[in-house]
Design goal:
Layout lengths: L2 E4 L7 E6 L7 E6 L3 E6 L4 E7 L17 E6 L5 E7 L3 E6 L4 E7 L12 E6 L2 E9 L2 E6 L28 E7 L5 E8 L3 E8 H6 L4 H4 L4 E2 L3 E2 L6 E3 L4 E7 L7 E12 L13 E8 L4 E4 L4 E5 L2 E6 L4 E7 L5 E3 L4 E5 L3 E6 L6
Antiparallel strand pairs: 1-28, 2-3, 3-4, 4-5, 6-7, 7-8, 8-9, 10-11, 11-12, 13-14, 14-15, 15-16, 15-17, 18-19, 19-20, 20-21, 22-23, 23-24, 24-25, 26-27, 27-28
Amino acid sequence: MVIRTEIPNIGTTIVDIAPVNQESESIWLMLAEGGGLLRFDAHSGRSESITRIELPSESAREPFGGHTLTRRLHVSHNGEFAAVVNDYGQNGRVIDLRSGRITLNLDGGDHFPETVPLSFAFASWQGNVIVIHRTAWNRLDVSDASTGKLLSERGPTSYQSGEQRPQHYLDYFHGALYLSPNGTRILDDGWVWHPVGIPAVWSVETWLSENIWESEDGATKRDVCARTWYWDHGIAWLNEDTVAIGGIGDDDNKIVDGARIFDITSTGPASPEWRSDWQWAREVTTFAGPAGRFFSDGNWLYSAAKSGLSRWDPKSRARVCQIDEFNPTHHHLGAGELAQLSQGAILRWSTSTDHD
């Protein structure tokens, strides 16, 4: 059953929500139109104003693939830090919710940022909250969320005409970031020129403790698959070693709805017409049907399309549940809920209850 909880009238529109995943209850952070941040308890319907955040003004670019500049809210697992970023833009800010202090100004660069959500993810490292963020079209960096201190200092990753190409140069436009359930790996849904979506994964631990160039060309890095003119679609980690990628096919004109499941701990043959010397993840199964956004609770794959929410069994490749007219955009891991904003309310559906 989908539960509808009205959001208290605060005199402005809620533009995005983000789950506080450390909480076992349905606790959410909400971003209001004017930059206000609120803590919302979806069980009781109570909200509490926390602080306010402003982003630098940014002119909207020509839309790419139907996407326009959109404000996006992120919150750390423990609920102590938040970030508001401009997806399909270049700017953002990280804020300490305990003090209201801006700890980091984000700039993802001005080279084709309209093609991807702003690369951003909170993670944990040695007991501290860290921020993984794009600082140029082809560079990701890591910073301490509480101080803004750069933790990924390394040499240049770009060059100008007449300059020598850096050893670890990466010809890759970083996209949306997806942290694995335990935070050990990260998936980057980016693309290469000419436009081919190539999601890539690597070890966060190796990146931060052994090889600062791991995100460019490290030993744990795997390219998952290659699809011409196709990225920024359904993606979900099923577990620490397995990821589901939405869309069956290698070209956007021929791709059909479905899920491709990859084991990123082992290698497989190269995607058609792509370099065989790259480290490609092994595709273990494929099945038609799933469309839209992807989510997973470790057992099931959920797909949220215009028609509604579907639950799939990755082993049998069968759809086992369908909820019409429910199109969730967020997954609260602690509460075990999928949720969406809907006309002044939040709609929630439990993934931990048996459903027919």
